[in-house]
Amino acid sequence: MPSVGEVRSQPRQGMLQTAAVIAVLKAISGMTSAGVIIITARALGPSGRGVFVLVFTLTTLAMILCGLGISISGRLQLVARPNPVSSRDLFGLGSVLAVLQVLTCAAAAALLLPLLDVHLAAAVIGIVAALGGLLFTSFLFVEVLNAYGFTVAAAVVDVLGSTMQLALVVGVATAGQTTVKWYVAALAAAYGFQTLVGAVYLRRLRVNLRPRFRGAQWRRLLAHGPSGMTVQFGQYSVFKVDRYFVAAFLSPAAVGLYSVAAAFPEMLRVLPVALAQPVFYGLSSQSTSNEDFARARRICLAVMVVGAAVAVLLAPLMVRVLFGDEYAGAVSALRLLVVAEVGLAVYYVDSSALSGQRRVREAAAAVLVGLVVALVGYATLIPWLGINGAAIASMIAYASMGAVAHVRLHGQGKASATPLGR
Q1: Nearest to residue 41, comparing CAs of 152, 178, 234, 148?
Q2: How many CB atoms lie within 10 A of CB 306?
Q3: Is the Cβ–Cβ distance between 359 and 226 less than 8 Å?
Q4: Which of 189, 192, 271, 411 is most buried (CB neighbours < 10 A)?
Q5: Cα–Cα distance, 136 to 243 (Å, whole number)
């Protein structure tokens, strides 16, 4: 693989400019994902939609566990000065972990989902395993693009992948299919397409994709693995494990309602997620400034507050028009989750700053606090308040994560003079 200096250079852009471009691309991706949600909700109904959500959540949680945190450590080590890790070593380790991901998804689909009254045929379990492997590989390619500073290119790959998801799901629905397996197969095919697109982008940027198996370099990549995996797994668990609690305490149909409630709030998440990419790269490569970060952070949070207020007002109309009357029970949970996104925005931006400074353990601390709060909240509130209890628990957990990340970044309640390490 070429050295960092030989990889085709990412043009320099201001943090706000880059974040704005990524936000637009993420918004497009979010709209296509919303299309997938709407179509699957209408085609499968609450119960089928719930099973679909449980399957996809399973593959994503498995990806984070099987990835051992190398997506975060890779983003740090690929640009580490003066001795970066080769992309070949990252792909070598990643190829081994991708096989582990396939096996884990197959085992979990066969053993875990039946406990939630979800029983899949052997052929469908095979499709779930394929989805898991392709999801892992496509995500790894996107993270390598992000590592080298090609954050806009990474967002483009994501848009192309999500657009293919929508196209294939529309095709399946148009064909009159009403069983979950066809929609899972459509996702697997779309992630296969995204993997191919990511590989093409990386080759054009002169990134060597040929795997190499060197234990010493793998140890470097795994050095930040536990903390990175804690951040990713804890973060995703806070965001998604509520579906499994809803399924366990209520039913797959309730998961379908809850996933609809979460759809628009997750679209609002586009902005902080978009800003997190240039923040991470800017700090890990030491190419950003305190002023850029502070200004971008203020704008992000202001837009989130306005967006949340609008969504709270329009929630009944959005649910009725987009999903139909059978999903009317999702309105209250949607409103709660929209408010929760403001606290989560603080977490996303500040934890990305911490991780970019190689303070991954401090970012992990915020996730662990949020995860504990979320698990206690889900177990306590869902049996009492149903899907609204899940939304309230999420709101408290997100606020806790944001508070801890903010304090860790800026000091014990006081802003650091150099919060970004410059």
Answers
A1: 178
A2: 10
A3: no
A4: 271
A5: 21
What b/e string do you get for 197-220 counting C-beta neighbours within 10 Å, with b at 16 or more? bbbebbeebebeeeebeeeebbeb
Strand spans (E) along 11-110: none
User: Could you write out the DSSP letters of every residue in 150-211?
Assistant: -HHHHHHHHHHHHHHHHHHHHHHHHTT--SHHHHHHHHHHHHHHHHHHHHHHHHHTT-----
What is the C-alpha to C-alpha distance for residues 268 and 51, in angstroms, rounded to an integer? 24
Round the CA-based radius of gyration of the chain to a whole number and report it. Answer: 20
Contact by Cβ (8 Å): 317, 371 = no
In tens digits, the chain (422 residues) has pLDDT values of 444 444 444 444 555 566 667 777 877 887 888 889 889 988 988 888 889 988 998 998 898 888 877 777 777 777 667 777 788 888 888 899 999 999 999 999 999 899 888 889 999 999 999 999 999 999 999 888 888 878 788 889 999 999 999 999 999 999 988 899 999 999 999 999 999 999 998 988 888 888 888 877 778 777 766 666 666 677 777 777 888 899 889 888 888 889 888 887 877 777 787 777 667 666 655 656 666 777 777 888 888 888 888 888 988 888 888 888 888 888 999 999 999 988 888 888 888 788 777 676 777 788 889 889 999 999 999 999 999 999 999 999 999 998 998 888 876 434 343 444 33
| Token code pair at residue 321 | 């028009």
E-strand stretches of 93-134 = none
The pTM of this model reads 0.72
Return the closest-CA partner of residue 38 out of 170, 189, 187. Answer: 170
Yes or no: say if 333 and 390 are a contact pair by the CB < 8 Å rule.
yes
User: Looking at beta carbons, which pairs linking 208-211 to residues 24 or more positions away fall under 8 Å?
Assistant: 208/1, 208/2, 208/86, 208/87, 208/88, 209/87, 209/88, 209/91, 210/88, 210/91, 211/88, 211/91, 211/92, 211/94, 211/95
Long-range contacts of 119-128 (CB under 8 A, 24+ apart): 120/55, 120/181, 121/181, 123/181, 124/180, 124/181, 124/184, 127/181, 127/184, 127/185, 127/188, 128/55, 128/58, 128/59, 128/184
**What are the CA-CA distances from residue 165 to residues 37, 49, 169, 172 (Å)?**
11, 16, 6, 11
Do residues 135 and 55 make contact, with C-beta atoms less than 8 angstroms apart?
no
Question: Which residues make Cβ contacts (< 8 Å) with residue 380, sequence separation at least 6?
Answer: 389, 393
Angstrom distance (rounded) from CA 378 to CA 394: 8
